[in-house]
């Protein structure tokens, strides 16, 4: 029989930040790069102004050619006047059509060079501003993820957090370096071109304003629908990442039970949902483009029609209408780009909100110093964020040097009790104290000096054995590392290819579960805490390694207080006291012999485990 203690709770999604909070966080992390942000704006404005040169030159050239009779017609006198005015302004005048063409070509080429230089400089400055900002943002997410309570982190989907640190950070970085330049340039182009259209002729500018309500109706249709769509898409990507990660990390278990089929179906379902949402986003964006195309066709036709009437009446020249039409036509691409890139902006905004949501998680200030003493849990109850109850009115005292074992069936609340006793989770009600000081008020460094927890899920970092051990005490020298390994019977480290300097983890020497657990117990010996919490810390070992791990755990507990969530009843026998839990309550307490004689729940477990 195996007595398990896995407390189950429905995974919770990490929070999302509001748009204002997200951009406030982003702006805070632009410190040191804000000068580059302003330079990017200046470069975008200059590039937009340079883009006006071509439409103005073409319109001016039309009037010059008409003035010398190339086009002829009733508009020649007005064109001549415009050409003469252009000549007095420094152009080649109406008597030199070839020179006019060359002069216009030179102006357009020069403006093109200026625009290209501004675009290059804007990209370079934006990279200087964006990359450090995104790096700091990613570090802030990781910092908060490592500092929030273990219970809060364990209650979420691992893939959700991984997606926020990896995919969402990449989305924000990609938007900052590729989308933002285009958005800035498009915005400046729209504003400057609209101003240029009004400057050509205020009447044509009024006609161009017809596009505003048409674009506005598109935005009113687009904006309320786009936000939820992109949020759902990003959430689906997080679920897909979680499924894929679970399938990869659990591949051995799936093969052992020939359960690859059902897991692949779950992965396929998550991938299909993400795919369908992405296809829906594309269709949604296509409908937005079609609305914009309709507005452009209608308004351009209206400008050409109004221009024809104004030229016929002699109010403006054909060149002015040409310039106005080209300026309005010049709005097509930037407005289309703004709508086309809005999905990426929205997607990046959703990613930023997900990252900011992690950063917004509260990390309570803890300043109290622990100095040892008895661990006391008084009236402790705990309910998970999703409403799942775990503990009910638990009272427990572990004196200095006392070892208490906890047993019970699945879902009894043993792991939750261990997390609260280790200070990794705060009780919903009641208090957990060490030496009279509440654990929730203890400075994290002081807490870890006094209490160390080892769980069933032990992580081996992709580095040397020595650095894996120094997680517990970074300043430890090699002699201290060797002593810690010897104290738990991990002499096998000396037989590794490079001993303490052997690279382990991904890409390195592969340690089996027993060896990983021994390294975890050696970390405890190196940290030398007063209280040790072992939550099924020897459960991963095979039957051959179980005795060695039990011996190693017993050595770690010597001279220390201990709370041991027992995976095997044989671990509980040696404890000073045994607690039996059921449905979040302590239902029995006593020594092994006392509880067997009582004939209660422990006696039943004992008969099933030991026989007789």
TrEMBL record:
Domain called ABC transmembrane type-1: residue spans: 38-347
Bilayer-spanning residue ranges: 36-58, 100-121, 179-198, 204-223, 297-328
Predominant localisation class: membrane
Molecular functions (GO terms): ATP binding
Domain of life: Bacteria
Lipid bilayer topology: Multi-pass membrane protein
Stored PANTHER family: ATP-BINDING CASSETTE SUB-FAMILY B (PTHR24221), ATP-BINDING CASSETTE SUB-FAMILY B MEMBER 6 (PTHR24221:SF654)
Organism: Citricoccus parietis
Alphabetical UniProt keywords: ATP-binding, Membrane, Nucleotide-binding, Transmembrane, Transmembrane helix
Protein's UniProt name: ABC transporter ATP-binding protein
Protein's cellular compartments: Cell membrane
Domain ABC transporter, first and last residues per copy: 375-608
């Amino acid at each position: 029989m195996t007595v398990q203690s896995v407390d189950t709770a429905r995974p919770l999604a990490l929070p999302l930040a509001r748009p204002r909070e997200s951009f406030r966080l982003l702006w805070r992390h632009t410190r040191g790069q804000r000068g580059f942000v302003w330079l990017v704006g200046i470069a975008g404005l200059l590039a937009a102004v340079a883009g006006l040169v071509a439409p103005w030159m073409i319109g001016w050239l039309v009037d010059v050619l008409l003035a010398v009779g190339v086009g002829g017609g009733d508009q020649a006198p007005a064109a001549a006047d415009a050409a003469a005015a252009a000549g007095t302004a420094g152009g080649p005048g109406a008597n030199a059509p070839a020179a006019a063409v060359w002069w216009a070509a030179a102006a357009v080429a020069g403006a093109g060079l200026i625009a290209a230089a501004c675009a290059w400089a804007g990209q370079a400055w934006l990279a200087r501003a964006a990359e450090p900002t995104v790096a700091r943002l990613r570090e802030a997410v990781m910092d908060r993820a490592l500092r929030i309570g273990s219970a809060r982190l364990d209650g979420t989907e691992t893939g959700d957090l991984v997606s926020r640190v990896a995919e969402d950070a990449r989305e924000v970085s990609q938007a900052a370096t590729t989308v933002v330049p285009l958005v800035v340039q498009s915005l400046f182009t729209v504003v400057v071109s609209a101003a240029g259209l009004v400057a050509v002729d205020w009447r044509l500018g009024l006609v161009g304003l017809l596009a505003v309500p048409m674009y506005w109706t598109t935005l009113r249709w687009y904006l309320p629908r786009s936000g939820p769509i992109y949020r759902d898409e990003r959430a689906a990507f997080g679920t897909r990442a979680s499924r894929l990660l679970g399938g990869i990390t659990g591949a051995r278990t799936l093969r052992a039970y020939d359960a690859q089929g059902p897991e692949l179906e779950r992965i396929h379902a998550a991938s299909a949902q993400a795919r369908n949402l992405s296809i829906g986003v594309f269709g949604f964006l296509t409908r937005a483009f079609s609305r914009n195309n309709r507005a452009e066709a209608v308004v351009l036709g209206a400008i050409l029609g109004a221009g024809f009437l104004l030229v016929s009446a002699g109010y403006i020249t054909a060149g002015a209408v040409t310039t106005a039409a080209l300026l309005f036509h010049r709005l097509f691409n930037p407005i289309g780009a703004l709508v086309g890139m809005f999905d990426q902006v929205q997607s990046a905004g959703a990613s930023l909100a997900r990252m900011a949501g992690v950063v917004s998680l509260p990390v309570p200030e803890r300043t109290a110093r622990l100095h040892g003493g008895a661990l006391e849990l008084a009236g402790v109850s705990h309910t998970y964020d999703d409403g799942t109850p775990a503990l009910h009115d638990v009272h427990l005292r572990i004196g200095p040097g006392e070892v208490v074992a906890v047993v019970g069936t699945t879902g009894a609340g043993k792991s939750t009790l261990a997390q609260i006793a280790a200070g990794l989770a705060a009780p919903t009600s009641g208090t957990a104290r060490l030496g009279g000081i509440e654990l929730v008020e203890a400075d994290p460094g002081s807490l870890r000096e006094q209490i160390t927890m080892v769980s069933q899920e032990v992580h081996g970092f992709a580095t040397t054995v020595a650095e894996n051990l120094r997680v517990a005490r970074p300043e430890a020298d090699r002699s201290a590392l060797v002593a810690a390994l010897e104290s738990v019977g991990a002499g096998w480290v000396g037989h590794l290819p490079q001993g303490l300097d052997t690279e382990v983890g991904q890409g390195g020497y592969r340690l089996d579960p027993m060896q990983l657990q021994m390294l975890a117990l050696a970390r405890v010996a190196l940290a030398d805490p007063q209280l040790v919490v072992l939550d099924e810390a020897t459960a991963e070992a095979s039957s051959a390694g179980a005795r060695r791990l039990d011996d190693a755990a017993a050595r770690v507990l010597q001279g220390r207080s201990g709370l041991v969530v027992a995976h095997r009843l044989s671990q509980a026998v040696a404890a000073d006291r045994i607690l039996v839990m059921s449905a979040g309550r302590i239902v029995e307490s006593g020594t092994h012999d006392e509880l067997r004689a009582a004939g209660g729940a422990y006696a039943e477990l004992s008969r099933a485990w030991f026989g007789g």
